[in-house]
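A brief tutorial aside. Many learners find it easier to grasp structure tokens once they have seen a single protein encoded end to end. The record that follows does exactly this for Prefoldin alpha subunit. Read the sequence first, then the structure, and try to relate runs of similar tokens to stretches of the chain.
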Amino acid sequence: MERLVKGTVTSLSSVFPAEEAQRASTRVHDTIAERRKELDQLKSFAADNNGLVNLVQKLPEELHHDIMASPHQNTPAIVPFGKAAFFPGRLIHTNEFLVLLGEGYYAERTSKQTVEILKRRGKTLESQIESLKAIMDDLKAEASFFDATAAEAA
């Protein structure tokens, strides 16, 4: 390697061989793909959580809800019991929820309390999504550096 003199420019290709830059670029792109899958999964969890918040808010508005409502208005709702049996049914006590607190611990909560818990979980999911997006932005910058280095070295 040449002796470096103050004020001189050294090309990246002299520091990083093309093969190493290409391998590094491939690893970073693979990591970005993994993070994208994680991001999609977190977004799916957040969407499910929002849907659950809406459902929990609507349930206490009525005293009872028919389950698996029949398309015919004159027949009662049916509840599956096993693979081949069905019974008439409806949900009652629609303001009582058993909420998973974590690590196998559950607590009975009202609809309002359950919504608050779900909203806190939603905020946590959103912060995880934002954090993952920031990591992906950094990885994309790193990938573009390695791509440029590999192109220059080639």
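Self-check: The first strand starts at residue 65 and ends at 66. If you spotted this yourself, you are ready for the next section.
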